[in-house]
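Hi V.,

You were right to ask for the full record rather than a summary. Here it is.
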Amino acid sequence: MDKSHHESFSGFSFIELKQFLDEKVLQYNTTKFIESDPIQIPHLFSRKEDIEIAAFLTATIAWGNRKSIIKNANRLMALMDHAPFEFVMAHQTQDLNIFEGFVHRTFNATDAMQFIKSLNHIYTKHNGMEALFSRYANKDLQYAIHKFKMHFFEIEHNKRTQKHISDPLKNSAAKRINMFLRWMVRPNNTGVDFGIWNSIKTSQLSCPLDVHSGNVARKLGLLNRRQNDAKALEELDHNLRKMDHKDPVKYDFALFGLGVFEDF
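Predicted structure:
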């Protein structure tokens, strides 16, 4: 038996902790979860590219109060006439003026306009988001995020917008883009995640590490590092893969649910 089965995590044995977290995954990975989560925005769509773009834009502004994330993501969709892919591909420069006045935390109209132009570039020149990520994913998905950011900003752009896509190679945990990847890759077996990207395996995903999941992971002994950075993500991933190497990121539901809904 793997020696990890004899490890102790914060008072739990490995087997007890796995059992506890597996139960929490079942509790939170249900369609009821969607009601209060930003993932509800891409669930408004059925076309692959609409889901991708809605998910990507929503994940990009997914920090702060969840109600305001949902409200502002809905506003972005309304500005694009609830046809994000069509808007991205067919917009003229003057059409981008509809974003004037849009703001979510530090993401403003300038950033929204740049994201539309860059997304158009990704679909036109790189055959779409899935194709671009999967081109580099065989090395490592965190490296693929780094390359995605590079291509996203290889067209003329406003420098201020670069901060809205994290770079794991600059020691970022890249929580929002890892969440986006979870949405795209994990199978839709409970109606929450989408599973529309078949070229990337669930085993390659990393946990979206934020304040909530980080705090819970530390209390459970899954994470020792204090900062929520790329090194912490590596440590957390390593421990979650011991529990399920095929689908480690399902435990995001457990860590997030315990943190947000149970004040664990």
